[in-house]
# Entry
Amino acid sequence: MKIHYFQRYHSKENVDTSNTMLLLSRLYYYSSDKFHTFLRELVTDEIMEFDTSMYFTLQEKNANSVPDATIRQNSFKVTIETKRYDSFRIDQIKKHLESFGNEDYKILITLSPYPLNKKSEQEIKKEVENYNAVKNLSNEKRAIHKHCTFSDIVSLIEDVLDDRDYEFHDILNDYKDYCVFCNLIKEKNRWMRAITAGISFESNLKFKLYYDPQSRGFSEHGYIGLYKQKAIRAVGRLVNIIEADYIDGKLIIKNSDEPVTEEQKTNIINAVADAKQYGWDISRDHNFFCVDNFYETNYIKNTKNPLQRAKFFDLYKILGDSKERTTEEIADYLRDKTWD
# Structure
């Protein structure tokens, strides 16, 4: 049984918040630079120059002295209110605003599975503006509000990680699994999972599937991107995940997300036979990720290090919206664009 970083089996918002704070604290202790980059990206639309860096200065001249050295960091406070629906109590928002002191940056985050409804958005905006006016805060010291979904948190952290952050990718994937398990992330088709194909690439295209050992975990996603030679070369929409064994000429379906079609059965059998030419035995304890079809593309990795294992892409962010598209349209959009 897989051991999880984040607890399941609950229905309380405070555990949702606790797990999110655990994720962020792990990110900070893993890399304070990546944590501060995450914060800057989180509020970049509201604060143009959000600077939380540490400054080390020698013989900095002050009005009355010149100390040998100074260490300085701008102060900030982030207050988070979590709900499992798309509206928030204004009396709570008022109290949270009053909890701010003389910090350089005052950030109120509302967190939920959904975009904020218009009524709550307008009410919160009004309260924040009133707070800033009553406190007579300058533009630099004003309180700001930012609404985030759980998907946004995952996507923003994914952006600050690179391919070599194996350990933290595992942590982030488990947080994403937790969110899916608890219905905090409901947008499966938002995510494309890029996976290294290499020598199996042509077979993956031919049999419309990708395979992985059943013991290797994965987060929920709606699309698969096949990575080869510094680019994602093909994209397919995931239609079924099948755990199967092929023993003594008989295909044994152990588990599947959807009813298994005859075409999928045939493709799995052929993929098992085909893998033998590479010296791979995938006849037991493997998951088969079946797609409707793979459409060729050329989504180019523009950094020198090749992709290791897997990477999740937020298609809503890449495409600029959440409109429904065909897989072929997604592949066409990605063609000849770049990613880090």
Q: What stands out?
A: The first helix runs from residue 13 to 30.
